[in-house]
Structures are given as C-alpha cells and as structure tokens.
Amino acid sequence: MEKFPEGQVQLVNLPGSGSLLKRSWDLYQEIFPQSISFALLAFLGVIADKSLGSFFHYIVRDSGASAKSLTEVLVFGIDLAAGIYLAIIFAGMMKLFHEAARGKMLSVSECISYGLSRARSVFWVGILLTVIMYAAIPTVIFFLLFSIWFYFALYIAALGEERGINALLKSRYITHGLFFRVTGRYAAVLVVMAIAVFVPYLFLGLGTVWVVIAPIIILIAGLATFPMLMMYEYFRFVDLLQLPRNIPFVPLGGDRAATIAWAIVGSVFFCIAWIYMLLGPSIQTSISNALVGAAAKTLLPYSSQMEKNLEKLQTFVGKFYYEFEPVGTEKNAPAK
Fold it and tell me: Which of 260, 279, 298 is the last residue of a domain?
C-alpha cells in the first residue's frame, strides 16, 4: 500500500507566506502577554543553562583532566535538564496557540500544566531528531532532506497523537511532495525576522552610546519576535496537517526500521564523540596521532603508486609530443 499521497495533495489550498504572516500577527496581538511570558521563560532557561555550564567550566579551568571530565558529565546533565524544561515550554506554547486560534484563551499556568503532560514525548522526539541529524551531517544531502522531512515532528509530539518514531514519520508524511513550498515559506519568515532583529546593528557606528544600547535593543527585538516566529511555524504546521489527502497516514515497518537505523548510527557517533571529549588532552593527542599514522600507512602505498603512474604518463605524453612535433620547429630542425 502506498504510504504517501503522491499527487493527492491539493496544492492550491496551501496558504502563502503573506497569509501566514497576517494570521500570525493577528494572533500575536490577541495573546501578546501570554506569548511574551513564554518567550521570557524560554530565554531564562537558555541563559540559566549556558551560565551554569560556563561557571562550572570556569572553576575547573586549572584543574586536572579528571575534574574536567567530571565537569563535562555534570554540564551534560544540566543540558538534559534544560532540554526537558524547554520541552515543557514548547508544548505549553503550542497549546496556547492552538486554543487561541480557535477562540479559547488559556492562562500561562494552564499551558504549563499541559506542557508537563507532553514533556516526555517532546523531549524524546527531540533526542531522536538530534541523533538522526548528527548521523546525517556527513552526508549533507540526507541532512538537508531530514531537516525538512522531520521538521514538524516536535509539533506533532506536542499537539498530535503520534509519539517517538511515528511523530517523525508523520512529519515526513505531511511534507511529502511539498519540499520547495515548505522551505520557501520558512525562508520568507527568516528574512523578515532577521531584518527585525539585526536592524539595530546598522546604528553601531553612531557612537559609544549606540554600542551599549544596540545589544539591548537586539535582545528586546529577539524576545518580541520569537513568539511571532513560533506562531508562524504553528500555522505552517496546521496548514500542512489540514491539507486534504486521499490516503491516510500509515507508519510502515520499513520506514520505521530505516529511521531507527539512522538513530542508532547517530547515537553511536554521538557517544564516540562525547567519550573522546571526556578524555584528557594527552590521550586525545595520542589517539589523533595514532589515527593520522594509520591513515598515512594506509594511503602512502596508493600515493606512491599514483606518483609513479603520473611520472609514466608525463614521460609518455612528452615522448608522444616530441615524435609528432611538426618539422621545422627548433627541436626537429636539421643540425647545421
């Protein structure tokens, strides 16, 4: 059975970027206090995470390798805690938008309660996305494809019924056949938000006062535009989800197996990179030297053979050119 509705999506029903921006702006005005509250909560969570990490790295800057390795473990645990916190904020924000778009206003506390109920699902999907994208980075093409196919998995985990791998497959399902239209709408809002946030940089040359004021303005602009961006993305998700399709979503075993395989590969890569980071500088240097030496021993015979082949080719080409050089040239001219 075909999983994806190839040729079944009515593209004329997908709203454009202008419509998305207008709907986002209208909703933004209706729930401005709640949306700014969520933006502040998200900002404080990120600041707390980065500040704690920097603090622990600072206090062990002159310590031994063991202390630094333990610090990395501690900071990793803080990052995981921050991820769970941001999953709560994200799910609560999506619930706020979802209900407000239907005329029902929720308080921040009600949305946080909902976020707590969805935190595990959103966080798990976030972990899957991270390791899959980590595995896809070297391939470039798959990285770009996955960044579109699985983009709405977090939204599905926050508002839909699917969990885990099925949320990823559902995201691919709703974006199938719409790759360029999805990326076009995302690029459009990024341009608008970049202009709103970075315009203050144009005033940095106006004097010392602006050097101090501009970062504050940029921070305020970022906090103000972040909810607008999330609303835009919410409406993009809803529009794709509501497109009429003749074939329902069915998570096939082969798709699940392929997605799980990517997640396993990414997990292995991530664990290797993380363990390597925990090792001391001397061990890292030894490993690097060993890898370089092994690569050199492996490639050196091929390199030597390539040089020999190149010399033979140059000799052959030179001989061929000499034999067929026109008579009357300096080399073939008769001796006087």
Answer: 279
Structure tokens of 330? 């300096």
My answer on whether 90 and 167 are in the same domain is: yes
Report DSSP letters for 123-155, one per residue. HHHHHHHHHHHHHHGGGSHHHHHHHHHTTTHHH
Three-point CA angle 274, 280, 282, nearest 5°: 130
Shared-domain flag, residues 272 and 288:
no
Q: Are residues 107 and 210 in the same domain?
A: yes
Q: Measured between alpha carbons, how far is 106 from 127 in angstroms, rounded to an integer? A: 29
DSSP 163: -
Below-50 pLDDT ranges, the chain:
1-12, 324, 336
**For 209-238, how does the pLDDT look when each residue is reduced to its tens digit (9 = 90+)?**
566 676 777 788 778 888 988 999 999 899
1 falls within a domain: no
The range of the structural domain enclosing residue 242 comes to 11-279
User: Are 185 and 124 contacting, i.e. CB atoms less than 8 angstroms apart?
Assistant: no
Q: Distance between CA 14 and CA 240 in Å, rounded?
A: 7
Measure Cα distances from 87 to 37, 96, 299 in Å.
16, 14, 47
Reference 95, options 66, 79, 116, 76; nearest CA is 116
CA dihedral for 165, 168, 174, 175, sign (positive or negative): negative
4 occurs within a structural domain? no
Residue 228 in tokens: 């607008």
User: pTM of the full predicted structure?
Assistant: 0.76
Residue 23 domain-assigned (yes or no):
yes
Nearest residue to 234 via CA among 5, 26, 6? 26
Residues 275 and 309 in one domain: no
Take residue 98 and report the two structure tokens written for it. 């979802």
